[in-house]
Amino acid sequence: MTTFRRFRPDDVNKFSKCNLDPLTETYELNFYLQYHAKWPSLFQVCEDSEGNIVGYIMGKVESSPDAYKFSEHYLPWHAHITALTVAPEARRQGIGKILVEQLEAAADTHNTWFMDLFVRSSNAKAIAFYKELGYSVFRVVKDYYGEHATDPDKDSEDAFDMRKSMKRDAKHEHVRDDGEQHEVHPEDVW
Amino acid sequence: MNRQRPRLKNGVDLQLQSAFHDGNWPVVIRLAEKRAKLSNDQYYECLKICAESQLDDPSTKFAAVAAVWKHVKDGSTIKDVEAIELMEWATTNLIDPDDFAETLGPLRVRAVKASPKDKYAATRCLESCLLHWDLASAQQIAAIIDRSFPQERDWLFWNIVITHLLSTSPLTTPDKRKLYGTLAQKQIERAAQAAEQAQDSNEASNKAPSRRVKTEEEVLLLYDIVETHGTPQDFRKLISSPIFSPVVQFRQGRKEVVMRAIAKLSRDGDWPAVFNLCNDCLSDCDADGQLTLLASDIAMWRHLITAASHVKDTNPDSANVVQKLLAKLLSSSHMRPMYRRNILLARVLAVFSLGPSDESDLTDGQPSSLRLRELMRYIDDQYLSPACFSDVKTLMESLDAAGLKYLAFDHLPKLAEVDSNDFKAASTRLLAHKTQYLLLTHRTTKHRDQNQQLKCTVCGSAVESTLCQPCLSQLSEACVTFYSSITKSEGEKTKINAEILPELAILVAFCSLNLAFGDGQAGQLLKPQETRHLVRALLLLDDQLAQNSGHSQLSLVLTQLHIRLGSGARASDIWDVIGVKRTIIDSLGPIFYDRLSTISPALLSTYDSWGSHLMDLLQSHYVNSLKLRMHQRLIDAFESGSYGSVIGIPQYIESLRSSGTRAMSLVEARRIERFLGQPSRELESDPRFYEVNDDTNLTQTVDYGSFPSWNSSTIQPMHLNLRLGPAPSNRRCHLSMLAEAFHELLTYKSPASYKASAGSSEYDHIFITETLARLSNSFPRFLAGPDDEMTQPELCYFETISLLCTLLSLCIDFDRSSDIADALHQITDVLSLSLENQRSQILHSEKPSIERTLTMLGSMHNIAMLRDTTAAIKLAAQWILNHNEKEKARDRSGRSSLPKELAAKIKDLQTAAEKSIKEGQAWIAELKTETMSRDFEPQLKKWVLEGEGAIKSILTMDSLPGLIDSWQLNVKGWLQVKWP
């Protein structure tokens, strides 16, 4: 029993079902308000019939600073998924997919070229989830995360920068099939 | 406010820049004065004043403040915005933030008026006014900018939204609110009209006027303003607009507008309009003729069904329309499981709301009503969903007792038998047990027979309360058997361990807890046999948490249980693992912190790293989020044209500022400091205190959403039973802060370095008299109200302090010629009774036993309240007696000193308080002896396992040592408490 709608600031008072899950990080208020203030249509929540938030997605639209315009790593106008979470009890219902699709619709409204996101290379579930939605690895950011999620002997982990073309990129010029062969360093990511 | 030193404006020479940067104020003063004379530039004059304000000399410290006030009174203008910014910086913390609207705000407005075309200066001034929440000045500036740059459409909407904010601000007078409301509405309606005219004349978008409503945010603002300030006709006109009607907006993917319109129409009771609007949106198709499903939220379906139930008399076809729509959507080819679930559930809701309501759910032992059959259809489809129980809980509760019993004891167990897969069978059986639990906690399952004897419909036995103990014991037994069997089974062990066992353990624990609580006695002291049920539940859940570390439901219930039983240390370990911090502390903090200082004061001592860590988690959110009067992100919202956020952020920030959790964080911190003798800064200098006055409504926002909500809604939820007492209410928060102010007043000691001047004692006297008068006025205001907003010991404590304030006030200005002596005698009598009453809240028997120890461990809140009550009485009595001695010495006539018998009575009160203190200290000493004794663990183990209870068979007792350690730590902590 769910309803999808935009985030409102007092939703943070109903975040417990999502944010008490160990895999979901709780940020300072400033962080949530930043997304709410700048990109309100890209911060969507899913609430249950009691008003508890059982899922939310935070996204933004941006491009790399103009100073990097001629760099090979320059990112044109695009949307980015910053956070996606679904409460444990609400999983396997397609809530995550609906939230991503809604963000994609908003990204098209903003006339972006593509949507991207970062995911740990060890997070097979998330990678499979995004691949099913049409995302593919665009590049591998070496040692992007400071610690490894599954291997305590390693002190870093790679990130997959995954992408999906939005309507504007009709020719799919901003995605590639062999992204896992393209490695970059964290300093190449802005 | 932000004290970061500003940068000097361009053109200031390097010598002055570097002196300013280095904070070399004498040089800055000298150079600025010189430049001011040479250039006649007002900026340098301001710079000189601001530099003077940085000197330690008290005579110059307020130079900038004085200059600001002078400009305001003279009506003169500081034209240079950078000079105003210097002034703002130099007066930070010296001008009351509330005075901004009378000082720097108007100066900012004057500066913008002086240079209306200076966009940079105007936006800087606007930003400052917004962050200081000076809406009156902000509105004037926004209007000037809008007039100066009519071609820039953003300024138009900034002007409109600020005018709208001003019209809804409680700081604006009612007549001005109306004026600004009308202004905002006229402006935005003009912009809306421009959009409609452009469409009518088919103007190409590049030729359409820029000052028109265009974006989704602007449309939302239009709705907000018309809804707030417009007439019903204005709103009707809006929703019929060819551009702005909700359906047209929805077809552009703008769902928020529809939700806004539905909410307003529902409030107005315009059900035909709600029905049509929901129907239009739910049946909306895309260009390919496919249903969009964008509106297929449960909220939208609920609105449609509610509206249909209202219009069915005038529109008999409405129920058919709903049914047809449901069937149409269910046949949609690209259905997500979530939407399918919503639609299936909407079908059940429709039958419950629109179908026949007078049918019996069961006839001859078989489902007969349409609603039960439809509900079973939904369950048969969705029973494997983890959310199935919560989806249908309310609907199940609407069934009659026979229907619900059939579901719980016939239908669902049969479903469980069908599944061959271990996990599926286990989850269905768990669903059956949860439904049985719902049935047993439902009031309709109890009825009175011919002899007026209350009987249980389920088992037929006579019962004494809403809860049937034999049924609960039987359910507990069934769950324990189930628990034992699945822990032994090998199939899908990981999934069963992760998803079934925690909930099953909670269910067994809940049966045990219900045996303890009966009809619900939140916060009351438990009898030994009731405590035993709590300890058993705690041990089972702690065992389970060892298998499912960080499980949120287990952790939250356990946190409450440990606190309720006086085991704060273990509660803090569990709390720390689930990581409640930052933004969610406001809504979840009270679950752990509220009254924790009365249970485990040493646990939160900021003198050790663990306590400091815990207190920092609680307090830092408010420090970080409320640094400025208004949050910086408001400016982002303006710059992004997010007008919904422009309206939403201030509302949230205001509610956070008046949050009950924020007030609670102060009260908990202050009580710990008093208990442990660790004084910190003055109460008056804490924003959590000085930003609150008697008119502030301190709001309660506790998020219980993650607690298992399995009790029937006809009885109290379990999390309320487990609390020490009611959540932080407006009244309790105010009373607690007033009580802290009382303690600070009577315990205040001047710093050793402070030398009192001859007249200072007179000022002290005035300060004390005025503070007591204020407290005496405030206490009765918050004491009046229902008793269920605080525990009995808290109420007794607050009443005692209120009386003490009156007693002190009367004794300070005592005059024998007046007839207040009788009143004073009466007050002291009542105070003695209050003290006795507070003592009686603690159940203590003389004979040592394991029951006595556990009762005492569960009575720490009451002991803490006794400690505070006695402290307040003793401090007040001492103060009065000292004051009396001084008066006797000062006024030899004896007219202003207390009569002997009254002084003796106050002395008696002091003695009684001291006796009570000794008694309290003795209890703690006894607790230490008993909990540290070698026999404690074996005795406790034996006691826990005594008597009946299926739960015993699955208790490993592995968690017992942890519980004992936690109790011992708590008692050791109490040994650090200072008894005055």
UniProtKB/TrEMBL annotation, chain A:
UniProt entry tagged with the keyword Transferase: yes
Gene3D superfamilies: 3.40.630.30
InterPro entries in alphabetical order: Acyl_CoA_acyltransferase, GNAT_dom, NatB_acetyltransferase_subunit
Any GO MF annotation of the entry: protein-N-terminal amino-acid acetyltransferase activity
The entry's keywords: Acyltransferase, Transferase
Protein name (database record): N-acetyltransferase 5
Organism name: Trichoderma gamsii
Organism lineage string: Eukaryota, Fungi, Dikarya, Ascomycota, Pezizomycotina
Domain named N-acetyltransferase: residues: 2-167
Pfam families on file: Acetyltransf_1
TrEMBL record, chain B:
Region (Disordered): 191-212
Matches recorded under InterPro entries: NAA25_NatB_aux_su
Annotated Low complexity bias: 191-204
Protein name: N-acetyltransferase B complex non catalytic subunit
Organism the protein comes from: Trichoderma gamsii
